[in-house]
Fold this protein.
Amino acid sequence: MLTRLTVHELGARFRSGEATPSEATRAYLDRIGALNPKVKAYLTQTADGALAEAAQADARFRSKCPLSLLDGVPVGLKDVFCTRGVETTCGSQILRGFRPPYDATVVARLRAAGAVLLGKLNMDEFAMGSSTENSAFFTTRNPWDLSRVPGGSSGGSAAAVAADLAAATLGTDTGGSIRQPAAFCGTVGLKPTYGRVSRYGLIAFASSLDQVGPFGKDVADTALVLQTIAGHDPLDATSATIPVPDYAAALSQGITGLKVGIPNEYFIEGLDPEVEAAVRGAIATLERLGAEAQSVSLPHTEYGLAAYYVIAPAEASSNLARYDGVKYGLRVPGARDVIDMYSRTRGAGFGAEVKRRVMLGTYALSAGYYDAYYGKAQKVRTLVLRDFQRAFEHVDVIVAPTTPGVAFKLGEREDPLQMYLNDVFTIPVNLAGLPGLSMPAGFTQNGLPIGLQIIGKAFDEATILKVAKAYEAATPWRERKPELEAR
Amino acid sequence: MAEAKISMKDVDHVARLSRLTLTDAEKERMRRELDGILTYIDKLRALDTEGVPPTSHAVPMTNVMRDDDPRPSLPQEDMLQNAPDGSGEFFRVPRIIEESGGEVRNGERC
């Protein structure tokens, strides 16, 4: 079955002529037709465009000149990326019907590499959430248990890879929105260093935290997609000019002598015992492979979440000011003046969580509260960053659980604060701008995936990928797939 | 239960700053939920941050300059195609400035 193959396996079949991009694209479209009604990963499908792009890729393989290792590979995109002429909603009613006039840089780079775009994937509205339950349209289901959430905000991107509804996907991670759904869905997901990947054409949530990254069926695929999208972009002033290394070359190196830090503060009360056992098991495996594990301390971990829930909403309240019913998207009729039009449009177009965060951010930035909330949170951010800097004086990577627990049931976390607490282990990495990856480290007794988080130094995704590859090669988790057809 | 951190008056004020029309039910829920979140955020006060500089971006960045070369922009037509009320080469909005002695048009177009 072509949809089970990794990007690398699929590419090999294209090159040998055993399969064509059109065959792979049709296989994915058929599978999406059969299983997307259950998983609900896609918001928009672009079948006609995909078949046309695949036919062009067929021709390139026939003439033995494919564009890249991603040529002809069917991929999906979180609906947060602008795609020229293809509806882009960001999971929100306020952007319903919006057809961007240009492609995001990461989309342009995937297209230039020959990738075939299957469609746009569901997400929490404006990437605010941890379950896709905040999507204005519907909730995506976890392929391992359809009564559970896939995580979020990039839940559609994670579920699509886990359910073989795309060969690879892109998501974004502001406080854990790639790593947490990757953990819940049992895929590999990588949040690169802040600045590693261009954000031009990415619909902004919190600009000092947002970063684009890949989901893959395995570590090598994830590395390949990162290779394709990483690097400086003159259209994004925050993208770094630091050269992008050869990630594939890093994968084959061993981890003998590599120093792995285990943060005491991530093994706390409230951590699911099955998650803890799996992560401790993974650390033992890394030691068996030659790595040296040692304790590190990240003492301000417990304050990261509180700082994040000031900083991210503050930035969001500013970024989301652009949704005013003028340039694109929804406009509510019948307003008495322009301010009334803005207010009614935003009141009708934003969902509850987006309104909550805009209000929280506006409050934290308003006169009289700025120093107490925003100023304080920025100082705490410095303390979180220094924690990591000190730890990385002694170790090469930090290994920890991605989340305190596994995928929860739909509707189980109604209180916003309970939902936020789910991100306690992922948020500090965003505050510090560091790269972090989540990958499967086993399953609970109930068959739900458990995520292992590997955190690296700034711009050192290569070492993370090296560790992840070594662990993947030594463990059987990648072989296990959700059984969707039987249900 | 500690004293409420945020009043209904605060909710009204912040909603106005945020340009958000909220229903009465939304306002009450918002007050309760923001109160809970702000109470949680208050744990930051326990930390001594005297002399700690603020971090706005984790990766140090200063102004990024580029050459001042004119380049083509996206066509005006493309940029207007998503407008809920486009008119020729303009975005049309309800009246913003009140005419002296005149009436504000009731925005019947929008």
